[in-house]
Write a structure and sequence with these properties.
It is a single chain. With 301 residues, the chain is α/β, with parallel strands linked by helices. It has two domains: 2-223, Rossmann fold; 234-300, rRNA adenine dimethylase, C-terminal domain (Helicase, Ruva Protein, domain 3, Orthogonal Bundle). It has helices at 2-19, 25-34, 51-61, 78-86, 100-106, 125-129, 146-155, 169-175, 186-194, 234-246, 252-257, 266-275, 289-300; strands spanning 47-48, 68-72, 89-93, 113-116, 135-140, 160-168, 195-203, 208-209, 216-223. Strands 4-3-2-5-6-9-7 form a seven-stranded mixed β-sheet. α7 links the parallel β5 and β6 (160-168). 38% of the residues are buried.
Length: 301
């Protein structure tokens, strides 16, 4: 009987602790009022207030006690609390200096977190985590800067095993889109060159405070050790990809010809396409990542 009472007492404590977390909307409101915090539109701040969604993010990221986590935009520390309880170490990178004293308060019970008041695009993540250490990136990203942050992480070749992020739903679908569809574009190709995308959950606006005007999704990008295609000049390939989608309704050769990033003639592009067995009228939205790599290698010659 004594054992049962102890178990029951532990369950009660667990429930109390859970209710005291920031994922409880009441606690979030109290914390915001306590610090007289004002949401900043320029930082795209929408705080998560749903524990089930946070659990899905933790599960999708496959976080263990051996992991070093880099969280981008912790806000008031809602998801950070869960990350601290599940990971070995958490580096929470927050650009808004007004949130730093709040984070010092909400994360005070945890000794495995370090808050970094910086712009993630200017942060040396490898130096932060320690040379040779792999990290898992987790974030509830501001929608206005989602693509620059994700591409900045990949292009800087940070030592990430995976990037699990909350993004605008349509952006998540663009990341995993296949050739020929309306969602397929430069972002699809760029993400799929570096990682394997997987949409783990769709998230409605009522899971945030304040509510965004669009639906969201949790997407995990599992980084490749080596890209799935080989290309001689990675930078040239991405210039060609951007040129091909800048004027989506035009043919690929017209798009490249009109681009300010590359200087190939329509004839050069047409000859390369013919060598690939493709017509001159082909559009960029139909080419696979492998075909863009092949086109890049041919034009690079």
């Amino acid at each position: 009987m004594l054992i049962d009472l102890r178990i029951e007492r532990r369950i009660e404590l667990s429930i109390i602790e859970k209710d005291a977390r920031l994922s409880n909307p009441k606690v979030t409101i109290e914390t915001i009022k306590k610090y007289n915090f004002a949401f900043q539109k320029r930082f795209g701040q929408n705080f998560l207030i749903d524990s089930h969604v946070i659990d899905k993010i933790i599960e999708a990221a496959d976080i263990t006690k051996d992991d070093i986590i880099v969280e981008i935009g912790p806000g008031i520390g809602t998801m950070t609390q869960y990350l601290c309880e599940n990971a070995k170490k958490v580096y929470a990178i927050e650009i808004d200096k007004n949130l730093i004293p709040i984070l010092a308060d909400t994360l005070a019970p945890y000794d495995n977190v370090e808050v970094v008041n910086q712009d993630v695009l200017k942060t040396d993540i490898e130096a932060l985590a320690g040379k040779g250490n792999k990290v898992k990136v987790v974030a509830n990203l501001p929608y206005y800067i989602t693509t620059p942050i994700i591409m900045g992480l990949f292009e800087n070749h940070i030592p990430a095993e995976s990037i699990t992020v909350m993004v605008q739903k349509e952006v998540a679908y663009r990341m995993q889109a296949e050739p020929g569809g309306k969602d397929y574009g430069a972002l699809s190709l760029a993400v799929q060159y570096y990682a394997e995308p997987y949409i783990a959950a769709n998230v409605p606006p009522n899971c945030f405070m304040p509510r965004p005007g669009v639906g969201s999704a949790v997407i995990r990008l599992t980084a490749y050790d080596n890209p799935p295609v080989k290309v001689k000049d990675e930078r040239l390939m991405f210039k060609l990809i951007r040129a091909s989608f800048n004027q989506r309704r035009k043919t690929l050769q017209n798009g490249i010809n009109n681009s300010g990033e590359v200087s190939f003639t329509k004839e050069q592009v047409e000859n390369a396409l013919l060598k690939m067995g493709l017509p001159a009228s082909v559009r960029g939205e139909t080419l696979t990542l492998e075909q863009f790599a092949m086109l890049s290698d041919l034009l690079g010659e």
